[in-house]
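Pasting as-is:
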Amino acid sequence: MTQIGDCGGWENPHPVKTKRVRHPGSIVLVVLAVLTLLGGGSTWAFGQSGNRVAGIVVNDADGTPLGRTRVSLAEVQDRRKAESVVTGADGRFEFSNVPAGKFSLEGWRRKFLPTTYQWHEGFSTAIVTGAGLDTENLVLRMIPLGSIAGKVVDETGEPVRDARMRLYFRNEQFGQDRITTRQFANTDDEGKYEFEGLIPGEYFVSAVARPWYAVYPGFIDENGVRTRVETVAPELNVAYPATFYNGATETESATPISVEKGARVTADIHLSPVPALHVTIKARGNVENGSAMWPSLERAEFDNPEPYRMEMIPGANPGEMEVNGLPAGRYSIAEPSRNGIMLGVGQVDLTKDAQVVEAKAAESMGTVKVKLKTARGEDVPQSMNLSLRNEKRKTIAFIGVARMGETVFEGVPAGKYSVLVNVRQPPQYTIGKMVVQGAEVEGNDITVGEGATVEVAATLMAGIVSVEGVVKKDGKPASGVMVALVPKDPRGHPERFRRDQSDMDGTFTVGGILPGTYTLIAVEDAWGTPWMKEGVLEKYLPKGQQLTIGVMMNSKVVLPEALEAQAK
């Protein structure tokens, strides 16, 4: 059962349950409000079946009961049918007269992750009433959110104000080790910063700032001639490199910050100046008629290039800009594409003054033409977007699909890319077959040469099939088990993975399945497993169930036999 997103928790001090009644019934509302605020039981609005859902809310970090926590119980099929209570000082909650069915049990509390029952990576276990299962001794574990705070100081120990802070998160969901940007912040007048609302995990923090005392060379105009002034003292012509909390200036040397449940971690950063470089950037195109393309310089922190803070002034010649305040290092060269996305068009090592950075010639940029059709013959969805993703899994272009299913990417740098589709509303689609330059290829990868035009004909497959079944352990229904639908080529098609978590009665539903060949497995306590590492998935597949979802299938599949839960 899927769960809501992992955002910060909140607490409503007066979560009164309301419904439209006539004036004489207002006493009922008062009674309900008092019961709710006291953490007492609720009167279920859907029937009088006598089922009871009750338990205790605890802090997942130390097991202590959590009072004044809002707890709601909502029907899985219709979340509008829901009631809520607020726990008492002992953390206990109770819902009475609950009809038979499946329900989502959720808790909200300030500074805690909004959490559902047995929450794991966005999945949870539904409460099942009316099936003879114990629903009166539940433990809802709330995950406290942590924070990283600290101070940025310069080489003399003085606070650095307005430093650009960047928080990265190591995301290992389903075994894909990726480090992505999570938040931004700026230091205050005392050099302090803070990132709040952090789920447990590993983080990195970097700071980018300019020395307050830095002075960079400029130009003077004499008789219509611009001359560069080179009289700035070396101790003033300095810059701060992007610096991580342990002092590293390269991502390979950065130390991760581990944030435990509810922990407040201090991470101070000390900046040290280095000699600043200046470079000349030359535009591509005609400056006079406004068609010039100006490249920018980005520092690649992990796989997240970000424009570097630098000073730019007009150069001595038309079509040139002078950039000051750059620390030496490796930079990415980026250009704006026609759809506004900055495209990486190369890299440059800046090691000395007066280096020249030029945009690539237009003739060296490629073009990708994509023609789409659907395998079932339906129209290509108008809400569909097409994107190109490079080998570092970064999207370099993103365009809406035209009415006839045609899309053209222009100004594409030479390299290898994956062609991906995205639809803003169900069903999900993927590329099932692709013909590149007249030849059918495996997968959805293409290679773009310098100045080349690549023509792609892609067939789309819709994910409209679902699989329902039961997970059992030793012949009995098993709840809270991770169910994974593994594609035939898991590392080549990670977008085809599907997961769910078994409910209290062992049932599960895996939806939005794309056509293909799969193995369905169920593994206990498997959340956080590095699935993409060689040998990890392979040991579970022999005991799984084989499934083939055809292109023309459009209904759910009910497994005739239970899926056996495997030990991790």
